[in-house]
Amino acid sequence: MASSLFFFFFLLTSHSLHFLPLSVLSATVVEDLANLTPPPDFSNTITANCLRDPLLRYCNNTSSSPMDIIEIFRSTIVASHLCNESKNPNCVESFPVIRIHSRPKTAALYLSFDFFWKYCPLTVVEIEIVNNSLNTGFPMNVLSCAQVRTLDLSFNQFSGFVPVQNLSGLPNLTRLNLSYNRFSEEHISDSDFFKRFNASSFIQSGVLPNAKRYKMKVLVLLILFPIMVILLCFCLGWLCLKRPDYLPRTCRRSHKFTSAILEAATDEFSDQKLVSKSNGVDIFRGTLKDGTEAKIEVYTEKVSKEKRTAFAEECEAVFKLRHKNLVRVLGWCNSRNMRALVTEWTNGENVENWLNSSSASSWRRRLRVVMGVVEGIFYLSEEWPEITFDLSTSSVLLSDGDQEPLISQFRIGDGNNSSTNIFNFGMFLLEMITNLRHDEEQEDSERRYLEYIRVHYPDNLGRVIDEKMKIEDRTVEKVKQAITLGLTCTDKPPLKQPSLTQIYDMVTSLYESSSRHH
Ligand SMILES: *[C@@H]1O[C@H](CO)[C@@H](O)[C@H](O)[C@H]1NC(C)=O
Ligand SMILES: *[C@@H]1O[C@H](CO)[C@@H](O)[C@H](O)[C@H]1NC(C)=O
Ligand SMILES: *[C@@H]1O[C@H](CO)[C@@H](O)[C@H](O)[C@H]1NC(C)=O
Ligand SMILES: *[C@@H]1O[C@H](CO)[C@@H](O)[C@H](O)[C@H]1NC(C)=O
Ligand SMILES: *[C@@H]1O[C@H](CO)[C@@H](O)[C@H](O)[C@H]1NC(C)=O
Ligand SMILES: *[C@@H]1O[C@H](CO)[C@@H](O)[C@H](O)[C@H]1NC(C)=O
Ligand SMILES: *[C@@H]1O[C@H](CO)[C@@H](O)[C@H](O)[C@H]1NC(C)=O
Ligand SMILES: *[C@@H]1O[C@H](CO)[C@@H](O)[C@H](O)[C@H]1NC(C)=O
């Protein structure tokens, strides 16, 4: 260290300066600096120097405290280091450039010598502290070199706000480079400052609003947003058209089914979900989105537009029907490619199966089923006389609990034919008594079925009345009346057909008399 002191002594006394023999600043240098004490006549040297060179800023404070003498001493050593580190030619004290590139540790050390920066040599006009991974806030120290013309802090990780006011206060600063740092975005209030330096001073510095990001935002707003809106509308529209069951309950009509909904409910009308298939109607068992089990009657026949309108009207009408003997209609589908009626799925035996059970052995019980059916028909004919319903022992169900008969199949769009309805009821009544039914597959089977009954009735009652039904003598007469009613209902051409009111009255009286006997 003695030689270095000598050099410094020399450096400070003469102006033909020499180098310090230390080119690398290290932790030991910092420690050394802390241990160094100035030579006894150092203050005289400074005074002499200051008289010669008023550019030495600390000179104005030599008269103050002895502490300053030590700081000044150390500062001259740092200056000497820095001068050589920055590769100034003829590293004299009055060096113009501080340039530390790609040397993170060294840069951080130099920046930490506050005293040096506070009395930054007035000769320094260019400061470049580049690519040093410095991750502090803006290095305020360097601002003490108010005379700088070039300040390059690019390629570091400086963060926080840039002291725009202080930088504006540097009158000779012509080249500023803050590029590639992590400064916070500055509100460009000091527009004069940003006029002095163009965007190339702030490339990816964080100071200026990122042009790319701004463009992205504009892009998002101008293009993506409308696209989103259109997509949203498209989705909503699609939902409305195809799957309204996904819309909130309040913005849809729950009785309107689309073919997509029914497809989803029946696994695309799979065979497993197919319950029955008969002339023009495929019946599926499906599960709606809310878990409701439904019977879906798909009308396979292609029809005209007018018929489709009529179909919708009838559906609307049956949808409003509420009766204990009518299956509940949940809604319908009436689109160009599908017509279907959706009713509640009823768990229950159909009458055809029930007739073979022991509980069907009583005439009164069978009559009770007929009575329920008649009540249903009567209600239907009053509410919507044009409707046709499918009445057979296989399509009438007995509800699980109270064994209430349920007319579960309508023939929507068949057109008005009350005579058909009465004929159908007659057939149903006869099936209830005979426990025999015609084979729908075979041609002319209805006629032959009726022929069979007419041949054996009334002489051969045993072949007409179901043998499983136990009939007491006093009720035979009533059963006969019922058969007669069935035969008149099925009269063809329908000359002797009774009216629905007459049927209702007769069945009621039969039922009441059977109850009395009971
Ligand atoms: C100054 O730096 C140069 C390299 O730029 C080096 O060769 C020389 O030894 C240094 N001088 C002193 C006195 O540190
Ligand atoms: C030191 O102070 C004197 C006046 O006292 C002034 O003229 C001179 O410019 C100052 N020097 C520096 C470096 O500030
Ligand atoms: C001299 O030192 C005092 C206190 O240490 C300080 O307030 C003053 O600004 C210094 N003067 C110069 C010219 O640096
Ligand atoms: C920054 O320094 C690293 C090594 O610390 C070096 O690999 C890289 O090339 C330098 N980048 C620039 C732009 O100087
Ligand atoms: C700026 O440069 C001019 C001319 O070189 C000089 O006179 C002036 O003192 C400088 N300003 C500062 C603050 O150093
Ligand atoms: C920077 O400017 C502010 C006021 O704008 C001032 O208070 C502060 O001392 C300045 N800092 C330096 C290092 O010049
Ligand atoms: C920005 O300013 C520098 C000088 O500071 C100049 O060389 C450069 O051409 C300018 N660039 C633009 C895009 O104006
Ligand atoms: C700042 O540094 C970057 C990277 O080296 C460079 O592209 C840019 O031109 C510089 N800007 C100025 C004003 O020197």
Description:
- This protein has 518 residues and is of the alpha/beta class.
- Among the domains are: 1-92, no CATH class; 259-344, 2-Layer Sandwich (Phosphorylase Kinase, domain 1); 351-517, Transferase(Phosphotransferase) domain 1 (Transferase(Phosphotransferase), domain 1).
- It contains 18 helices and 16 strands.
- A hairpin with a 5-residue loop joins strand 14 and strand 15.
- Helix 13 packs antiparallel against helix 14 and helix 13 packs antiparallel against helix 18.
- The protein starts with a helix and ends with a helix.
- Residues 1-25 have low confidence and may be disordered.
- Bound molecules: 2-acetamido-2-deoxy-beta-D-glucopyranose (8 copies).
- The site of one 2-acetamido-2-deoxy-beta-D-glucopyranose has 3 residues, from loops.
Strand content bin? 5-15%
Q: Determine the oligomeric state from the structure.
A: single chain
End-to-end C-alpha gap: 133 Å
State the strand order across the main sheet: 7-8-9-11-10
Bound molecules: 2-acetamido-2-deoxy-beta-D-glucopyranose
* CATH architecture annotation of the domain at 351-517: Orthogonal Bundle
How can the largest sheet be summarized?
Answer: 5 strands, antiparallel
Structural class call reads alpha/beta
Mean pLDDT: 82
The radius of gyration is 53 Å
CATH class identity of the domain at 351-517: Mainly Alpha
Low-confidence stretches: 1-25
GO molecular function: ATP binding; protein kinase activity; receptor serine/threonine kinase binding
Keywords: ATP-binding, Glycoprotein, Leucine-rich repeat, Membrane, Nucleotide-binding, Repeat, Signal, Transmembrane, Transmembrane helix
InterPro entries: Kinase-like_dom_sf, LRR_dom_sf, Plant_LRR-RLKs, Prot_kinase_dom, Ser-Thr/Tyr_kinase_cat_dom
Transmembrane segments: 218-241
